[in-house]
Specification:
- The structure holds three protein chains of three kinds.
- By secondary structure, chain A is an all-alpha fold.
- Chain A has 14 helices and two strands.
- In chain A, strands 1-2 form a two-stranded antiparallel ribbon.
- In chain A, a hairpin with a 4-residue loop joins strand 1 and strand 2.
- Chain B is mainly alpha-helical.
- Chain B has eleven helices and no strands.
- The longest helix of chain B has about 55 residues.
- Chain B starts with 17 loop residues before the first helix and ends with a helix.
- The chains are: A mainly alpha, B mainly alpha, C alpha/beta.
């Protein structure tokens, strides 16, 4: 804990100028007191504290104002707002149920695509490719994150929808067994396409974080497997990927958080529809795309309901992000295991001769 | 004193007899030899599968850029950059108002977010303890808040009480979006300054603000500049925060207290029309937007690499 | 008189040769002409089923030589020249597979590097599984044998499913030894295995090493002279020469090297003038 002393550096320095100070910054710093004690000038401190206060108040204001604006909707529908599956402005029935389900489905399928592709790509970049190739290719994958979601959405709407409509969906409807998932729907847009778009948006996050996690596995851990006679892939599979497990979990969680909050790109390709989807090719609406679609025409209670959807969305993404942040932090503070059983610790087993 | 191996053998299990060990040794050697080829093949196969995954991962970027270029290039013209939108069916027109709008809105947002972010980062770098840790944690979580929530927040906070949409509300929303990114980037950049440098400068009698300015900022400047550029690149492309605040418009508007247009809004507006001409305008706008963002991002990274190499 | 391979064979009696190194040099670096030599022209014999200590101050090449025996330099920018033989196997021959070499040579590192996500049992048999041994009965038997040899069996036999990271430091290192032994290597390389352990755990490991040398040829890298005198049969002394390249200065039976060293540099080292 830092306790800033008042008075500033001048006072401390003058009182010590008579005694011989040991050479070197650390000696002088020791004279000034414990680490972390920085004398405070007025303006400087004001700026720092001011900035921090502004930031904190913005965060607080965000939560408060949203909840405030959404309150009428909750008062109107009660807590069942979350579970109710009906969204009908005419009968003034508002429920987030369908949107939550569509959000979970699209994010879930997106994750199904992006997790294996992301881990494999990260493995290629971190373990298999030579350094000279891995660095620029890594940057290329990362650049995908710089493309704004409106452009991805535009591309999805004008390029992927026709492709899906013409080629992909008829193809999927021919595959035996699985085809029942893909009934109806021949519009191109729909839940499946939204999932694919989400996968594209999650990919850079997944690859970058997984790559960092894989590279973070120490040489000693790799050599443990190598020295036992493993091939390169065996080392990766048994030492590197398990060693990166925490980082990979964090990557998945943060990618998921990104997908949950994606609104614009999804709104452009998901088609819109307020009933439970009967197939993966059906149109649907996620929490994010609902806000985009309904906001402009919504008045009164409906507008509150839309803001209520934002609150629900915030809760989801906050959970995912907090989970991800905790995972990232938790990895570095490993080692606090549960107490060992006593006899396991105090072993004085004789060496067999 | 050199040791000799013990002679008496306590081995209740019989597993450590020379015969048992030799037998196990043979089994292991045999298995190792005979499976090596298969193990290597599996390894090569997996390696190839990972390369395929890499190619799959690169396809979206390549496809996005090539389609945007192919379809957007037609729409580029002098008129495109200098004129405002015209009614449907009338030839000509451009996105001049959207370009100006983006510059004004993002400019105002950066003018607020960059200094405030720097101040918070200075706060975090300096203090330890629960307060700083909490703020840092909050900043990290905030960077994951969906931009649509930020847009609706700005709507709830400002548009509702004031009664109308405005570009400056959009700036507010974008500033909220940029803050966590800038805070984290600035803090990381400043943390690379060694502690001794701080203490030495302070001990020599410098006022803390002067220390901050001269010592820390100079060392951390590359990282700060890079982080800020990337935050601006992110803000330029955001649509959702502006949808509920700046609203968009079809006329040139330089007064930030009125609704304004911006490039992402224009893309959304034009791209969703059935008119192919308007769709081309949308693609062209997307091309300009992506080009601008890529220049900012690549520029930021190159600057970072250049600066770290020339830092000493 | 430096021991040569021929000299070792005759000078050490009728002992068999476990590992032989002939004119081994290890270089680092990519540029052809500017390769940095880490250790030069080492010729050494590790007698079978004995403990040979590779002794010397830090950075003199003893770990580099150790790691050249099981081809760990393959994955770095290091290049090894010279001949290393284990029994009849030429380690660096063109048609020799490194994985096969590493099945015959086990290694234990400075810090325990157990697989953190695996249980005690899975850790011990990890090497067996990687080499294609699958039968449950065999794995159980090999695990018990290895754990008995590492003096861990009685402590863990009822808790084989526990995560391995929950053992104490000394136990983890012994588990690493068991893991290496499970593959039934003929040579065991130990790279300062006690450096991360407290004195009591170190003493247990030293006792273990002595017992193990009945079945396995052991090479022990250490900078602790007393440890070398306590547990090794032969000692090889590595020092830096004038151009900062590691060299093998002297090798012989531990008693001889410490009581009547042949080389003045060895004498300076063992009598504590430096290092």
């Amino acid at each position: 804990m830092s306790t800033d002393s008042g008075g500033g550096a001048h006072g401390g320095d003058e009182s010590h100028s008579a005694s011989p100070a040991p050479a070197g910054p650390t000696g002088i710093a020791a004279l000034l007191g414990a680490r972390g004690r920085r004398p405070r000038g007025g303006i400087y401190a004001g700026v720092r504290w001011g900035g921090a206060l502004v930031f904190v108040s913005v965060v607080v204001a965000l939560v408060v104002s949203l909840v405030w604006q959404a309150a009428p909707a909750f008062r109107h529908s009660g807590f069942s707002f979350i579970f109710n599956g009906t969204w009908n402005p005419d009968t003034e029935q508002f429920g987030a149920g369908v949107f939550i389900i569509d959000t979970l489905i699209t994010t879930g399928i997106g994750l199904l695509i992006v997790i294996p592709v992301g881990i494999a790509t990260a493995a290629a970049l971190s373990e298999f490719l030579p350094r000279r190739l891995a660095a620029p290719l890594s940057t290329c994958v990362d650049l995908l994150a710089a493309v704004p979601s409106i452009v991805v959405g535009l591309w999805g709407l004008l390029v992927l929808v026709p492709i899906f409509q013409r080629d992909v969906e008829p193809f999927l409807q021919k595959i035996p067994v699985v085809k029942h998932l893909f009934g109806g729907g021949d519009l191109g847009s729909g839940i499946l396409l939204a999932s694919v778009v989400l996968a594209v948006m999650m990919l850079p996050t997944m690859v970058a974080l997984t790559r960092t996690a894989l590279q973070g596995v120490s040489v000693a851990d790799r050599e443990a497997a190598l020295a036992l006679g493993g091939t390169h892939w065996q080392v990766v599979r048994r030492a590197v990927i398990p060693g990166a497990r925490g980082g990979i979990q964090a990557a998945v969680t943060l990618a998921m958080g990104r997908a949950l909050g994606e609104a614009i790109a999804v709104a452009l390709v998901i088609g819109g529809g307020v009933t439970l989807p009967h197939s993966l090719l059906a149109n649907g609406t996620t929490l994010g795309s609902a806000v985009i679609s309904f906001f402009s025409e919504a008045i009164g209670v409906q507008r509150s309901a839309v803001i209520g959807l934002v609150v629900v969305l915030l809760v989801f993404t906050a959970l995912a992000n907090i989970g991800g942040q905790l995972l990232i932090r938790g990895r570095s503070s490993k080692g606090h295991e549960a107490a060992l059983p006593d006899d396991l610790i105090t072993d004085t087993e004789a060496v067999p001769a | 004193m050199t040791a000799r191996p013990g002679t008496a053998t306590q081995d209740p299990s019989g597993l450590l007899s020379p015969e048992a060990m030799a037998r196990r040794r043979d089994v292991v050697r045999h298995a190792s030899r005979t499976t090596l080829r298969r193990r290597r093949l599996v390894g090569n196969g997996t390696r190839i599968a990972c390369y395929v995954a890499l190619i799959i991962a690169l396809i979206p970027l390549v496809a996005l850029i090539s389609y945007t270029i192919e379809r957007g290039v037609h729409g580029l013209s002098v008129a495109f950059f200098t004129q405002v939108p015209v009614p449907q069916g009338v030839p000509g027109g451009g996105i001049y108002n959207a370009i100006i709008g983006t510059l004004i809105i993002v400019g105002l947002a950066a003018a607020v977010a960059i200094p405030v972010g720097l101040a918070v980062a200075l706060f975090l770098v300096d203090r330890r303890g629960k307060v700083a840790a909490t703020i840092r944690f909050v900043a990290d979580v905030m960077s994951g808040v969906p931009s649509i929530a930020i847009g609706v927040f700005a709507y709830a906070l400002i548009v509702v009480p004031s009664g109308h949409y405005s570009g400056i509300t959009g700036s507010f929303a974008l500033a909220v979006l940029m803050l966590p990114i800038i805070i984290r980037a600035d803090e990381v950049a400043m943390r690379t300054v060694p502690e001794d440098l701080w203490d030495a400068a302070l001990a020599l009698g410098a006022r803390p603000s002067r220390v901050a300015r001269s010592v820390v900022l100079r060392t951390a400047l590359p990282g700060i500049v890079t982080g800020n550029l990337l935050a601006v690149a992110r803000a330029v492309g955001e649509t959702a925060p502006l949808l509920f605040t700046a609203l968009g418009s079809t006329v040139l508007e330089t007064n930030p207290f009125q609704p304004m247009d911006a490039m992402p809004l224009r893309i959304l507006q034009d791209g969703t029309q059935a008119d192919p001409h308007l769709q081309t305008v949308a693609w062209a706008t997307a091309l300009v937007l992506v080009a601008f963002i890529l220049v900012l991002s690549i520029g930021a990274r190159t600057f970072a690499a250049y600066a770290t190499r020339h830092a000493r | 008189m430096l021991d040569s391979p021929a000299g070792a064979a005759s000078g050490a009696g009728r002992e068999e040769i476990g590992v032989s190194l002939e004119h081994v040099t290890v270089r680092y670096g990519k540029v052809e002409n500017a390769k940095q030599v880490a250790v030069r022209d080492v010729s050494l014999v590790l007698p079978k089923n004995q403990v040979t200590a590779l002794l010397g101050p830090s950075g003199c090449g003893k770990t580099t030589i150790l790691r050249s025996i099981n081809r760990l330099h393959d994955h770095t920018t290091g290049r090894v020249t010279g001949v290393i033989r284990i029994g009849d196997l030429d380690v660096y021959a063109k048609d020799t597979q490194p994985e096969i070499v590493r099945t015959r040579v086990g290694m234990v590192f400075q810090r325990p590097n157990l697989f953190p996500t695996l249980s005690i049992f899975d850790n011990v048999v990890a090497g067996l599984r990687m080499n294609g041994v699958k039968k449950r009965e065999f794995l159980r038997e090999a695990a018990e044998a290895a754990l008995r040899q590492a003096a861990l069996w009685n402590s863990v036999k009822d808790r084989l499913g526990l995560p391995a990271v929950r053992l104490s430091g000394g136990q983890q290192q012994r588990l690493c030894i068991a893991r290496a032994l499970a593959v039934e290597p003929e040579v065991l390389l130990l790279d300062e295995p006690c450096s991360a352990l407290d004195p009591m755990a170190s003493a247990q490991i030293e006792e273990l090493i002595v017992q193990l040398s009945a079945h396995v040829t052991i090479a022990l890298v250490t900078h602790n002279l007393f440890q070398a005198t306590r547990i090794s049969n032969r000692t090889a002394v590595f020092l830096l020469n004038d151009d900062h390249v590691g060299t093998l200065v002297e090798v012989g039976s531990t008693v001889d090297v410490f009581s009547s060293p042949q080389d003045p540099r060895t004498e300076a080292y063992v009598t504590g003038h430096f290092g």
